[in-house]
Amino acid sequence: MTVTATYSGEELNVTFVASTERFDYGVEGSPVWEEINPDSIEILHVDILGIDVDPRTLPQELQRAIHALSGEVEFE
């Protein structure tokens, strides 16, 4: 399943997208749940000061800093 999350700051808005994986306890009849695969988190959209920015055009260090914000949002 694909999930998204949005970070909304005063001057920066970022939309992230990620994939989930199904997990269970490995026992028949055990609960099944979805967890985000942290390696699948991508920056989908960046808006800085109201201007749409292609995240691929940003310096790598800035991309990493923005990507780190994904730890502060809830994926749905």
Entry summary:
The protein is mainly beta and about 80 residues long.
Overall pLDDT, averaged? 96
Apparent shape: elongated
- The total number of structural domains is 1
Strand fraction band? Answer: over 45%
Radius of gyration: 15 Å
**Main sheet: strands, sense, barrel:** 5 strands, antiparallel
- Sheet/helix structural class: mainly beta
Helix content: 10-25%
Question: What can you see in these coordinates?
Answer:
With 76 residues, the protein is mainly beta. Helix content is 12%, strand content 46%. It has one helix spanning 60-68; strands at residues 2-8, 12-24, 32-36, 42-48, 51-53. A hairpin with a 3-residue loop joins strand 1 (2-8) and strand 2. It is elongated.
Feature tags:
76 residues; mainly beta; 5-stranded antiparallel sheet; 12% helix
